Amino acid sequence: MSAEAGIRRRELLTIALWLGLATRLRPSVQWSAPAARPQLDSLSASVAGLLKYKESARIVGRTYLQNVPQEADAQTLVNLLSLGPVHNNSESRNATTNTLRELLQLRMRQDFEEGQIVKLQGWILSVTEARLCALVALG
What we know:
7 helices, mainly alpha, two-stranded antiparallel sheet, single chain
């Protein structure tokens, strides 16, 4: 990928912030199949709308999904991208935008520290970043 076609880390963080907010606002019960698709389509469209280089994110996302086809489902990706246990306490439910951004940045940093990385087309991404792009690709 050329530098021009690449995706900027700031854009990925913006996506991560949006997903953090979306997972925080979703119902505590599992989405049912009929209701899930419109909500997921809306989420994917909103995430894509935040990107300056949407096509680059789609390319990265498609490549990731070719390598990890078991994650080629928007609901699965949303679940994998959620902050998990941090959403179960009142502090995280009332978290500010900055707090969510910090939590997601921490998640990406932890991915690198723990070796949770993927190599796609010469790029080294955290698994979290790759999953964000995959969600855009599915949108």
